[in-house]
Amino acid sequence: xxxxxxxxxxxxxxxxxxxxxxxxxxxxxxxxxxxxxxxxxxxxxxxxxxxxxxxxxxxxxxxxxxxxxxxxxxxxxxxxxxxxxxxxxxxxxxxxxxxxxxxxxxxxxxxxxxxxxxxxxxxxxxxxxxxxxxxxxxxxxxxxxxxxxxxxxxxxxxxxxxxxxxxxxxxxxxxxxxxxxxxxxxxxxxxxxxxxxxxxxxxxxxxxxxxxxxxxxxxxxxxxxxxxxxxxxxxxxxxxxxxxxxxxxxxxx
Length: 253
Hints:
Elements: H1 5-26, E1 36-41, H2 44-47, E2 49-61, E3 64-74, E4 86-106, E5 118-139, E6 146-170, E7 174-181, E8 183-195, H3 203-217, E9 235-243, E10 246-252
Antiparallel strand pairs: 1-2, 1-10, 2-3, 3-4, 4-5, 5-6, 6-7, 6-8, 7-10, 8-9
């Protein structure tokens, strides 16, 4: 079953509401003066495979903090239809990492308590990189001869934006961090390279079909190929508007 971006956002907001409701019940009075927090991003597991993203937040001054994150994640495996005699094999090799930082301003005029609890605004920058290697095979229907090629893909996203969030502190030590709205200017770059040749299909046709499959699964990146299609050698870049949402749970010390 294909999960769309809209469905993922519905899940995100449902989980966000659950955490907000739970936190409002269990949160207690002013928290102790712990300046450090480590967190794990739980919502990334809805978007990526084998996702492990951790962040560290440090109180810099009253109602201001620096939050940095780093993680490993794999881009979801995409099903591509290349015709009856051509198949992209499920066996694959995938890698991916992410890194980013944000500087938070907790709104003292709104929040009852000091950082790191309450509403915050933050500029942020982040970078995501994904790599996938998969084999493609073509079976000649007349001779039965099988031809193979390796498709290597790299997908990078550079984000610069701002976010609105709310962080709950539970029992002094535990936090639930919700980024509720995070628009960004995002630079997408996709690089496809076919090692080998297939007699029934042109390289650029394969590149186009792969990117179309990604667009179908993740509608939010429709503009990745621009109006002119995939460039020579499968390299394509575009700048567009992106959005950031996440939920993390953490521990203060």
